[in-house]
Structures are given as structure tokens and as C-alpha cells.
């Protein structure tokens, strides 16, 4: 299995502190009208961008992270680089899919999200989660086998989704 990028634990703790502090400010203060809170959030936002090296990240993204995941997961996700297309072979794509199905191969939610992003980028299928978790949404049986799901992903990744308009000569 390919490895996800290593996460610096010191940075992870600092990102966790930033996100948790910001979320608390959003939850417990009048962040829209209190200038002190606004400035605190701007400083937290600046520090989050600085630590992660991501200009498109914001503390606003973690307004109420606890409603859908853990603090550690969002911190890891914030620190992980966005996967870039590498042109992985079908064999490597198959390996990733098998490891997702055998969830014990994936350490946590942040890692699962990373591998789902890799698959999305490598296959060009922006609904890759449907293939893996809801195969009936992509034309398979709900309880399709792993081999059926892999075959469908590999076939669909090679299809062109761009339909050319009909030519009308006239």
C-alpha cells in the first residue's frame, strides 16, 4: 500500500488548538459583531494558513467540526497535501480500493478521505464514493462484490464523459 504523507505531530497539535479555539469562538461569542473576536479569528486564520501552507484553508471551514468528525481528523486533513494525479496503474488503483474495503488497512477517517481523493483524481470519477459505498447508484447491485466494483471503476475511468453535440448540417 502506498503511504500517506507523514503528519508532523507538533504541527498537528498546533492545528488542533487553532481549530478548537476558532470553533469555540464561533460557538460562544458574537463573532459577527465583536471586533476583538473578529481579530482573534483573523489571527487564527493567518496562523492556520501559515502552518498548513495552504492559502485556501480557513478557520471558517471548521465552524462546527464536532458535528461531523473529530478534532484530530480535521487537523490531519488540514495538514495533508492535496493529492496530485500521478497516473497510477490499474493495479495500484485496485490496491487502494481493496485497502478501503478492508477498512482495517486504513488507520482513520483522515486517511480514508485522503485515499478517496486519490481515487477521485486518478480515475476522474467525482462520485467515487458512490462506487465504493453505494454501488447501486452507479448501475451495480447494492451488495456488489469487490471484484464487480473494481471492474466498474476501471471501466468507467476510461470512458469519456464529454458528449459531443450532434452536428446539424444545413
Set out the fold topology.
Blueprint: H1 9-28, H2 35-52, H3 71-79, H4 90-101, H5 109-123, H6 128-133, H7 146-158
Which terms would index this structure?
mainly alpha; elongated; 170 residues; disordered C terminus
Written description of the protein model:
The structure is a single chain. The chain has helices at residues 9-28, 35-52, 71-79, 90-101, 109-123, 128-133, 146-158. The longest helix has 20 residues, at 9-28. Helices cover 55% and strands 0% of the residues. It contains seven helices and no strands. Residues 160-170 have low confidence and may be disordered. Helix 1 (9-28) packs antiparallel against helix 2 (35-52), helix 3 runs parallel beside helix 5 and helix 4 packs antiparallel against helix 5 (109-123). With 170 residues, the protein is an all-alpha fold.
Amino acid at each position: 500500500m502506498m503511504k500517506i504523507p507523514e503528519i508532523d505531530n507538533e504541527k498537528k497539535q498546533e492545528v488542533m488548538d487553532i481549530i478548537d479555539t476558532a470553533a469555540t469562538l464561533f460557538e460562544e461569542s458574537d463573532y459577527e459583531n465583536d471586533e476583538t473576536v473578529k481579530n482573534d479569528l483573523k489571527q487564527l486564520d493567518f496562523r492556520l494558513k501559515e502552518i498548513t501552507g495552504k492559502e485556501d484553508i480557513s478557520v471558517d471551514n471548521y465552524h462546527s467540526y464536532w458535528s461531523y468528525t473529530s478534532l484530530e481528523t480535521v487537523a490531519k486533513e488540514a495538514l495533508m497535501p492535496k493529492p496530485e494525479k500521478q497516473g497510477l496503474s490499474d493495479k495500484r488503483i485496485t490496491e487502494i480500493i481493496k485497502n478501503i474495503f478492508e477498512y482495517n488497512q486504513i488507520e482513520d477517517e483522515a486517511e480514508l478521505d485522503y485515499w478517496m481523493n486519490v481515487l477521485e483524481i486518478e480515475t476522474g470519477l467525482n462520485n467515487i464514493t458512490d462506487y465504493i459505498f453505494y454501488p447501486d447508484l452507479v448501475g451495480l447491485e447494492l451488495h456488489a462484490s469487490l471484484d464487480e466494483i473494481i471492474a466498474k471503476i476501471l471501466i468507467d475511468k476510461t470512458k469519456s464523459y464529454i458528449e459531443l453535440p450532434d452536428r446539424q448540417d444545413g
